[in-house]
Design brief:
The chain is about 45% helix and about 10% strand. By secondary structure, the protein is α/β, with parallel strands linked by helices.
Amino acid sequence: MDYTSLPLKRLAEQFERMPGVGKVSAQRMAFYVLGLTPDEAKNFADAITDAVSKLHRCSICQNLTEHDTCPICENIKRNKSIICVVGTVQDLMAVEKTGEYDGVYHVLHGEISPLNGIGPDDLTIKELLNRVKNEAIDEIILATNSDTEGETTAMYIQRLLKPFELKVTRPAYGIPVGMELQYADNITLGRAIEGRQIF
């Protein structure tokens, strides 16, 4: 017999819908929320409602923003001739954290995954091609994940970009700093050799 109250069960079920959150973690989150004061709970709920109602995709790069265009696209110091194509906004944030990239972005909002029912038309590939046609672009960096879906997406986009005669690059994937070579898998080590740089 299930002794869990219905409101608690529904709350936990909502958390469990999040990617990577299992039943135990969802219950932990639900109990955390139940421990909030009424004011804290209202602030929490308001933050969710506010984000969902105010954030939308940038009209240029598809990043999330409150305005028509995101702060990166509006920044006149960014190099608009280089577009880094990423799968998600989280990937964009990861690249930004490096402080090494001064170009602009294009967020696909996913990667091609036939097993999950995600095809090219479900991504913002058409919007990317429109940018390439209408903007002065010199280079496209295909920074999708190095898994099967990411590689498939990168190859698909690369084929579409061929007629434009652009420089199309892929980030060098390889050995993490501090890792010993003997512990690297064959694919990682192979990519590290392939993406080697002049020392």
